[in-house]
């Protein structure tokens, strides 16, 4: 009897942890929707119903774009992970959506690293963390490339009063900080999840270039899909703007939202503020932009995390030999 008690206790706490993660994710979603000073949820629902925007045809197309977005994310994860372990599409689906749910309420979704790693036995976990880092870097690379191009055209199309003296000073200080931090990293024994930077560099360098290219292409497809989804929502809300001009603002918005650090509590506030500032140049009202941002969040984060909660609740620790 005494021998079975620890196992039962362990199982009880394991189930409790899984329930706590799902409840925390749902509470986070509820709190974000109901305690948003920029957009009250009742105003959001009322605005959508008054404009009669979401017909069955539009809903199907929006859902299709969200499914396609996550389809490419799952394929990317499957392709990158195959470097250390072959997994099925079903495995990649479970890990991607389960990790989304488990990390939704963590700062900048940093919990995703641990959530994906725990699907594997101990000997695979450090490489999995690094592969997840590589996956995010590839997505950020696409965002940065399009964002820099978008910002260039944005500054040429729309009048922005720059204080160039301050801008040069900030860039100079930023460059000095980057150099100092880089020098400090080189001299220190900094580790990422117990792996030294030297080993991280070695891992990335030996990673198959064709898999990195495949991961980059999947990241590109994802970017094109959710950028178009944002543009499609602009059209649904009857915002008359040429496709090129819209993409200039959208790409600028995504890169600025990505590079500005924020803790998860203020994430929507900061990203919403960036969108409001940029779309103010074409005189789009605040309610419309905040409604689009909320809709994008519901489609691409909340809905997948609801499905991901199923995988969290049915999660079992991997065997010692995976």
From TrEMBL:
Keywords, sorted A to Z: Membrane, Transmembrane, Transmembrane helix
Chain segments annotated as transmembrane: 12-33, 53-72, 129-155, 167-185, 212-231, 243-266, 287-313
Protein name in UniProt: Lysylphosphatidylglycerol synthase domain-containing protein
